[in-house]
Amino acid sequence: xxxxxxxxxxxxxxxxxxxxxxxxxxxxxxxxxxxxxxxxxxxxxxxxxxxxxxxxxxxxxxxxxxxxxxxxxxxxxxxxxxxxxxxxxxxxxxxxxxxxxxxxxxxxxxxxxxxxxxxxxxxxxxxxxxxxxxxxxxxxxxxxxxxxxxxxxxxxxxxxxxxxxxxxxxxxxxxxxxxxxxxxxxxxxxxxxxxxxxxxxxxxxxxxxxxxxxxxxxxxxxxxxxxxxxxxxxxxxxxxxxxxxxxxxxxxxxxxxxxxx
Length: 261
Description:
Blueprint: E1 2-3, H1 4-11, E2 27-31, E3 37-42, E4 46-47, H2 50-60, H3 69-84, E5 87-89, H4 102-116, H5 128-136, E6 140-142, H6 152-161, H7 173-188, H8 210-217, H9 226-229, H10 234-259
Antiparallel strand pairs: 1-4, 2-3, 5-6
Helix pairs in contact: 1-3, 2-3, 6-7, 7-8, 7-10
């Protein structure tokens, strides 16, 4: 679970997005017939995982929405989250670096994309159906150069354990920590609920701490103190992910025959 507004407020300083902060709305106002404000409510920017964020992005870009201030807030927050976490929109690879507003992207940029790829009507206009097709076919790439790459064996194992069957690059840091926690438990927990020893680590035993890792990342499991997760910085979470991936690699290498992975 990630709150896009909180993530933005924690990280936008000293970035291009500083100039967009005033366009981000935290409240939704209710107006009377005469235009007076008669109530307000906080806008929830909670998203469960990267799949939900991607679907929300596609939703707000649809051509028949009218592009409200709230849509623009979503656009800024999602664009920032994608940019900050290394996600790229394949059809528009530079859009998250310096976005303007949702109308500029969802109307102007997509129209130019359609024209460039010959997706126009005889009169030169771009049909709404064409815009929807482009949006529905959005694909995303993830830059993992700053992370420890997960190998195919470990990734397959983590994906099988994930309850939503997400690909590794589709998971948030919180979800990765949840699944690494569960994966290490699956690999090491014996029938009597005790952890088995990892062989061939005599000289690095003090660095291989699966029990301590699981205790530290227990709060990322479903229903466990979600408010405490926000106390961890993105850098701390990424370190834990890198450490967890390295440990799963080690366990898979040293116990591969035992678990028939």
